[in-house]
């Protein structure tokens, strides 16, 4: 949208500059004729002091009441100066050339925003946990006019833009070098909570190693907590890398159109990772059950009729787990969550009931999902479009 306004603004500018004088070209073809005596030095009235050219008494001079539409002397002169020797075919050719230059300039600067090939890269064993988000990314990129593929590896595929996910796995050095060699661009997507033990040092080293090879266009992530941590990294500040909040949000891909029961509780958590946390949660919700959903059909079949309790891997000050919450809110399922990072809570306090350590759970505080409000507030395609429009694209 911004690029389109930029383009048509330029068209309007050149129309005013070049085409408007064409409309008012003078019919007098002897303007500045060499045989004319306009500048005849023998003409003794040249700048004659007695001349009334600038006579203050001449009430015609810049008369505000003079609204004669045919009086276009200034524009006639400009038109003559620019186009005195051009006949009509040459004039038309000049107009066409001007428009071609504008269009070429437009697409040279902004072509990367349109009809890109985008490839998403992540390890195959991680796709199991990220399949909804990856499918929603593909949908949104296609909705914006791009082609998009999912690659379950870290091997270069010819693309205009690569989204590299899950930095917890080593990103091969050659992968980044191939991106650089082929003059492609890439974005890191930080999918992991950065409040895990030792994650600060771990990710700082990983990012620095890859940024030194090739600076990413940006780093995307799903939590304001991660943004806070990433902005504290010297390698981010020194290389002026943009950190964008691009969370999983509303998408028709995982709008399963479900209903929620405020008295039936379930959790969607990975066995092994959350066992201890789930046991603690069962004290508060004795009838809670744990769902295992790894496909779109399983989500649609198993989640319907529940209110979902969101559990953190690490309890303290955790990023909000939007990879599983976005499909729930998109489908109309109410969510109760353990306390999260305050900035994440502030963004979602109209959609999620956040538990408070000092206040007992109250089922009356569970928030029925306003899907239309959620769709308009957190729309996946709109968030991605805004981020892409603000990135420092390279000319190709």
From TrEMBL:
The keyword Transmembrane applies. The chain crosses the membrane at residues 5-22, 91-112. This is Uncharacterized protein. Keywords: Membrane, Transmembrane, Transmembrane helix. It comes from viral metagenome.
């Amino acid at each position: 949208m911004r690029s389109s306004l930029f383009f048509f603004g330029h068209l309007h500018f050149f129309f005013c500059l070049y085409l408007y004088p064409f409309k008012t070209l003078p019919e007098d073809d002897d303007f500045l004729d060499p045989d004319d005596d306009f500048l005849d030095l023998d003409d003794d009235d040249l700048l004659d002091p007695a001349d009334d050219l600038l006579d203050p008494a001449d009430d015609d001079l810049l008369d505000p009441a003079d609204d004669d539409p045919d009086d276009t002397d200034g524009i006639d002169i400009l038109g003559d100066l620019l186009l005195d020797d051009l006949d009509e075919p040459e004039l038309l050719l000049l107009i066409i050339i001007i428009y071609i230059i504008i269009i070429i300039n437009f697409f040279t600067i902004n072509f990367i925003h349109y009809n890109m090939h985008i490839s998403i890269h992540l390890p195959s064993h991680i796709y199991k946990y990220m399949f909804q988000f990856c499918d929603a990314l593909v949908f949104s990129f296609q909705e914006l006019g791009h082609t998009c593929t999912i690659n379950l590896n870290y091997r270069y595929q010819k693309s205009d833009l690569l989204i590299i996910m899950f930095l917890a796995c080593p990103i091969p050095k050659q992968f980044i070098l191939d991106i650089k060699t082929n003059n492609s661009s890439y974005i890191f997507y930080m999918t992991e909570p950065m409040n895990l033990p030792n994650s600060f040092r771990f990710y700082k080293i990983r990012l620095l190693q890859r940024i030194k090879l090739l600076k990413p266009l940006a780093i995307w992530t799903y939590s304001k907590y991660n943004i806070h941590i990433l902005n504290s990294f010297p390698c981010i500040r020194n290389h002026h890398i943009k950190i964008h909040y691009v969370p999983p949000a509303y998408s028709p891909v995982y709008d399963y159109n479900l209903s929620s029961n405020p008295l039936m509780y379930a959790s969607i958590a990975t066995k092994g990772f959350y066992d201890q946390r789930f046991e603690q949660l069962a004290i508060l919700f004795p009838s809670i059950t744990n769902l295992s959903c790894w496909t779109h059909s399983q989500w649609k079949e198993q989640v319907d009729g529940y209110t979902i309790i969101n559990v953190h891997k690490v309890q303290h000050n955790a990023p909000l787990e939007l990879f599983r919450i976005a499909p729930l809110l998109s489908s109309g399922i109410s969510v109760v969550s353990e306390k999260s990072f305050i900035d994440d809570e502030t963004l979602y306090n109209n959609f999620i009931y956040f538990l408070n350590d000092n206040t007992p759970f109250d089922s009356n505080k569970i928030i029925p999902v306003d899907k239309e409000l959620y769709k308009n507030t957190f729309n996946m395609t709109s968030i991605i479009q805004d981020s892409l429009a603000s990135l420092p694209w390279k000319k190709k």
